Amino acid sequence: MSDRLWDRTRRRVQEEVVDAALALFLEHGFEETTVDQVVAAAGISRRSFFRYFGTKEDIVFGDLAEQGPVILEALRARPDDEPIWDALRHAFGVLSTLVHPRRGAAIGRLVTSSPALRAAHLEKHLRWQQVLAPEVERRVGTGGAPPGLVGEAIVATALACLDAATTTWLGQGGDDLDELARLTDLALAAVRSG
Amino acid sequence: MSDRLWDRTRRRVQEEVVDAALALFLEHGFEETTVDQVVAAAGISRRSFFRYFGTKEDIVFGDLAEQGPVILEALRARPDDEPIWDALRHAFGVLSTLVHPRRGAAIGRLVTSSPALRAAHLEKHLRWQQVLAPEVERRVGTGGAPPGLVGEAIVATALACLDAATTTWLGQGGDDLDELARLTDLALAAVRSG
DNA sequence: TCCTCCTTGGCATTGAGTGCCAAGTTAGCA
DNA sequence: TGCTAACTTGGCACTCAATGCCAAGGAGGA
Fold first, then answer.
1. Which of A44, A61, A108, B193 is the least buried, fewest Cβ under 10 Å from its Cβ?
2. Which tens digit of pLDDT belongs to each residue from B102-146?
3. Distance between CA B46 and CA B38 in Å, rounded?
4. Above pLDDT 90, what percent of chain A?
């Protein structure tokens, strides 16, 4: 947040590492590319790399896993009487502002092609789920079920549909964000009519 | 499946390693327990361990991730006109026959307490999803959506609800399987009425 | 300018997972 | 029973991700 030279330098270096790494990942694959190759390409020491990115996966996801509160804020901003699915879909919309648009599709493709990244991706969803579930349950009530169950189930379902839609979306180009929203709605509709 | 001495010995050793390892995991935690400690407790060499279990996570999950076809078989056995959610919930019932009942709750608790195990657990769901989605989509149709989307979304939702129900179930004891089925139905109902 | 805070990179170490090989065990067969 | 082929075992060395420690150097305020 600050603007001291240190912070600006840090952000610049981080960007450069991500650029160099994504290029390597896309060419050779995520698992096949070692951290040593990345740091060599980025001109940084191995030790410093692990201070910028706690894990190799963090190159791809950045601090997205910690952005649950941002999504929560977006969800809170939706009107209380809006159907929960619409509110969630709109709240997830902020994600597109958190990811470099040019990188979005590339990241998506990487994730589907690497078990380690898929796992990190799902773990990220779990983190968001824990943040969002209480607010969802506040809106829809527990419906007689034990506390927690309904909120968790609804958020997990919304994320699952978003994922299924993203898979389809990437398969057909992955360039139009409105199309992704449309596919997400189709998935949610299928689940609710089933 | 064969009954040569080799195979029986293999199964026996495998069971012993799992018993020793689960005891260590429950006492000290999954991440905190090293493979070296496990093999020392089980009286087997480190190298042989990695022939029995490809990864440390495999101690906990065994070959559950490869059992998608078994669930698929159970799903195919359900009548074609049964509502998809009932068919899926019943199909998932075979899982309780694949896990040592005595170990089930212990495994559940381990999974919720270790990021590495949670990731493996979700990756396992993804594997099942790919196996089950086509049969689900055959039953319910695509409803105008691109092929694949509806099947993926429905299976992912069912698994998400099963997971949410399992979390609640473990929190309240985790001993009665009928109660788990009831909680799963509650979760699914909440999702569909939302 | 001096002093403090923070970053950097090198080194050593841990822990998971793999390839290779020599020695031992089992199974099938004469 | 004895021989051989198939398979398992465990030791060793290695790769790769990740972490703790430490000395050196740049940034920023007094």
1. B193
2. 888 899 999 999 999 999 999 999 999 999 999 999 999 998 899
3. 9
4. 84
Among A124, A120, A55, smallest CA distance to A95 is for A124
Find and list the nucleotides of strand D having atoms within 7 Å of a protein beta carbon: 7-12, 15-21, 27-28
CA distance A85 to A94: 15
Q: Do B118 and A120 touch (CB under 8 A)?
A: no
Please, which residues have CB within 8 angstroms of residue B38's CB and are 6 or more apart in sequence? B17, B20, B21, B24, B49, B56, B59
Q: What is the largest CA-CA distance in chain A?
A: 58
Measured CA to CA, the distance from residue B39 to residue A132 in angstroms comes to: 41
**What distance in Å separates the CA atoms of residue A68 and residue A42, rounded to the nearest whole number?**
30
Searching chain B, which residue's CA lies closest to the CA of residue A127? B115
Nearest chain B CA: its distance from A12 CA (Å): 31
Query: Global pTM?
Result: 0.92
Residues of B in contact with A123 (CB under 8 A): 115, 118-119, 122
Is the predicted pLDDT of residue B166 greater than 80, yes or no?
Answer: yes
Gap from B122 CA to D5 C1', in Å?
A: 43
The tokens describing A35, both together, are 């951290």
- 3-state SS, residue A147: coil
A36: which nucleotide lies closest, measuring CA to C1'?
D16
The dihedral built from the CA positions of residue B60, B65, B70 and B71, taken in this order, carries a sign that is positive
pLDDT, mean over chain B: 93
CB proximity list for A44: less than 8 A, separation 6 or greater = A13, A17, A52
Are A188 and B153 within 8 A, CB to CB? yes
Residue B1 has pLDDT above 70, yes or no: no
Q: Which of B85, B121, B150 to substitute to test the interface with A, most A CBs within 10 Å? A: B150
